[in-house]
Amino acid sequence: MSPSFKYAQFIKSTAKHLGFDFCGIAKAEFLEEEAPRLEEWLNRNYQGQMAYLANHFDKRLDPTKLVPSAKTVISLIYNYYPEHKLPEKPEDIKLAKYAYGEDYHFVIKDKLKTFLEILRREIGEIEGRVFVDSAPVMERQWAHKAGLGWVGKNSLLLNRKMGSFFFLAELIIDLEVVPDVPLAKDYCGTCTACIDACPTDAIVQPGVVDGSRCISYLTIELKEAIPSEFKGKMENWAFGCDICQDVCPWNRFSKPHQEPKFDPHSDLKDYSKKDWIEMTEETFQKVFKKSPLKRTKFAGLKRNLEFIQSKPS
Q: Where is the active site (predicted)?
């Protein structure tokens, strides 16, 4: 058995031991097919005010710009699907499921650092970096190349065994490892459930999302007033949005996560609409102390709550 094959086995067993649901391996090389797609997406201004997405164009496409000696991209899946949804009657205030508990950046980054330490201890000196949605890494494309799934019509990575309610993370390392084979097939077929369900028409064509129309963008990334054209279309989403995932048939395979840190704060479980509307900054700081909601800050959350309560003119 070649060393690169042994490394692949060891990497996958380590990923499982650390709680990752799936691990795939891809050769670190320039993402040639993605270059024109990314350029067109940016030229259409689908990134909205997310100016950072236009930065580091070369780094997004070439892992050796991030790790100069890169040979391998390890792609990982970490489940966040909750055992119980927060109250979701039509009139309820809604949070994206990934934001129920602690900020995933910190939870997963710690695991990735441990992962890299284990590899160095067991294999030897390895140059590498870890990433979880916070650097110019095209994580869905790498996950596809690593055989973990395909990019669905809602532009998210879909996995046949667990749908899409998961985080993606990567280790880019200078170790030669036997790569996995990408999925050759798109398993969305003729289904258009996500496109049909999006209330702001953000999915402009299969696999392409106009980020500037996405409810997640409007409630998190957009720092100014939400455009009035979206009044009456937010469906009570105060932070993020799961609509295109909730309607996806592949998410019938979602199973509850095993990460206690992703469980919601005890106060959140019985939050009424009145509790949300009357929330004070003190309560916000207490309930969302380690939450992704810190990103939008109290002022941003209040803006979102006021907007989704307003009626179209």
A: 133 (proton donor)
Q: Domain map of the chain by residue range?
A: 1-313
Note the pLDDT of residue 194: 98
Residue 288 has pLDDT above 90, yes or no: yes
d(CA 77, CA 60): 19
Report how far residue 257's alpha carbon sits from residue 134's, in angstroms, rounded to the nearest whole number. 22
- What is the pairing mode between strands 150-151 and 157-158? antiparallel
Question: For the CA atoms of 11, 13, 14, 15, what is the dihedral angle to 10 degrees?
Answer: 90
pLDDT, tens only, 17-39: 999 999 999 999 988 888 888 88
Is 241 flagged in the annotation as binding?
A: yes
Rounded to the nearest 10°, the torsion over CA 6, 8, 14, 17 is -110
Question: From the CA atom positions of the chain, what is the Rg in Å?
Answer: 20
Q: Is 133 a catalytic residue?
A: yes
**Predicted TM-score (pTM) above 0.85:** yes
Active site residue: 133, 186, 263, 275, which one? 133
pLDDT digits (tens, 9 = 90+) for 234-260: 999 999 999 999 999 999 999 999 999
- CA geometry: angle at 245 spanning 242 and 251, to 5°? 135
The half-sphere exposure of 221 on its side-chain side, counting CA atoms within 13 A, is 17
Q: Is 194 annotated as a binding residue?
A: yes
Q: Rounded to an integer, what distance in angstroms lies between the CA atom of residue 24 and that of residue 179?
A: 8
* Cα dihedral 142/143/146/149 (nearest 10): -140
pLDDT tens digits for 53-96? 666 678 888 999 999 999 999 999 999 999 998 876 778 899 99
Distances (CA, A) of 238 to 84, 192, 199, 219: 19, 25, 15, 6
So what's the pLDDT on residue 53? 65
Is there a binding annotation on residue 79?
A: no
* CA-to-CA separations, 255 to 11, 99, 105, 183, in angstroms, rounded: 24, 17, 21, 22
